[in-house]
Amino acid sequence: MDGTSEAVRSIGQEDGGATWSRPSRRRFLGATTTGGLGALLAGQFDLAAAAIAEGELAVPPPTGSDVGSLFPFIQRQAVEGQFPLSFLNPEFNDAERWKSVARAKLLELLHYAPPPCDPQGETVEREDCGDYFRERVLFSTAPDIRVPAFVLVPKNSPPPFPTVIALHDHGAFYMWGKEKIVETPNEHPRLAEFRRQHYGGKSVGVELVRLGYLVVVIDMFYWGERRMLLDGDPQDWLERSNALSRERIDAFHSRASQYESLVGRTIYAAGFTWPGVMFWDDIRTVDYLVTRPDVDRLRIGCVGLSVGGLRACHLAALDERLRTAVVVGWMASFPHQLKNHIKNTIGHTKVVPGLYRYLDYPDVAALAAPTPLLVINGAQDALFQQDGVKASFEKLHACYCKAGVPDRCRTRLYDSPHEFNEAMQTEAWDWLKRWI
Question: How confident is the model at residue 15, as a pLDDT?
Fold first, then answer.
């Protein structure tokens, strides 16, 4: 036996025995000086392997969690009880003071605030669609970013118009963005199919313009005209023509889904957040709208499904120019999500690092108060833990009650999956009519 082995063995001696014990710093350094750290670790691993072989290491108990044996540790890190910056915390008695503190923390954690710039809105196309006009516009959300959008302008009433920002979903459907909720002539059949699955077959944007609203829908970052294209991508993915087969569309969506994590990690490595980009673009959409003479700047609302609901929630929370918001399919208390409901609800597009150490998601939504807020979820929506949905509803109502405006918050649970169906739309349009 060489000197290193003797040194390692001596570290393990306890009253003359040969059992492994944690070495003191002096013994550790002595062993590594004698024969190297690798030999010490090798001895430790040999003993650990022997312990496993003899059945001395207990099998961790089942947790029923998607993250298995790591869940108890992760759960212990979550906030228990009241979140420090929740409006329900007794230290906050003034709603405006609370919003100033909590909103500042949220904006800080987003790590995205480009220099201010003029929207410089530009209408590049205008088509007469019978009872409304459809414009394709570009405007700036940052000095170097031009965002494409549809603006639908009604013909059945004089301007200025009450206005709705319609926010499209994620849906793992990346090839198109704004077209998912605005029907266009000669569109790809997959878009109509997508609407049947998620929107009751309706074009939400067209439904709203026919109700008399001016409607704006932008392409969210990573979707539609802002989708990720790689060097050497095939021509059909560049053109998005109606000749695209289902298989080719699915292949693009599969690739985009796989790369979403890499794009997210690259964004975080650059020092900002994906939600910061999304929410900033939506706020800057309001900046663009108020430059239009046909928009009634005192009557602007928003509506969205899924990630569109997440965006609607944050837009109302961060921008007091919104007069109402409808959040569909995106509300829950997030400590309830940790065990089994993160994999389909929290990807890089939604992570605000550190947020849930300060505010639960319904606390964020409550930042909108006193703005009227309608929240709709489905009882069969597998993306959300239903006890967490109910807890979020209760907290939202408690926050609005504390703010003195209980009638401005409505939460509804439909017996439906993750969708924005016709019955939900009827309630949403009634809500918009009431408030804007």
Answer: 37
